[in-house]
Amino acid sequence: MQVELTELELRYASLRIIDRPRVQRLVASMCEQGQQTPVMVIRGEAQPFVLIDGYARVQALRMLARDLVEATVLDLPEVEALVMGVGLDNTRQRSALEEGWLLRELVEAHGLSLEVLARKLDRSRSWVSRRLALVGALPESVSMRMSRVPGRSDRERARPAPARSMRSARSLPRMSRACPASPSEKRVRRPIG
User: Fold this and answer.
1) Would 92 be classed as within a structural domain?
2) Residue 27 above 80 pLDDT?
3) Residue 186 falls within a domain, yes or no?
């Protein structure tokens, strides 16, 4: 099903490291082939849908000035959907920090024990404990706002990006014209209220 981006609650965005090169690759791919994999959502309360998996795809669609995203609505409780999202996310490897942030969310906000988490994720209790210790040891300011891409050296992070990869607000109309909306992407206005 197609969902308007404005209908998504990005409740778990802070549990992800922002990988700008990956998002740029997604933008290029979506320009050529459109969205290949739907995002995963559940029904929400404040917004019609809560985004569980697909934060980079949503960011790429926003950069392309798109309004709609292909989504799969999971008919699961939020905790089960989050756990399922971890198991199905095989397009990239999550960092230890991202795993720790998710585990902390499941423990603190949803009340799961280490034993239950280990069983649901098919991991050892020790693995869960180590991930929680990692995020617990970091200062909150570092832990929650970290935007470094895993695997890049400090020298690479300090180096400015090449000019060809930079995007400005002036280039958005050009990008939008170069990457037309897919034929199935017709804007459907839903009544407010």
Assistant:
1) yes
2) yes
3) no
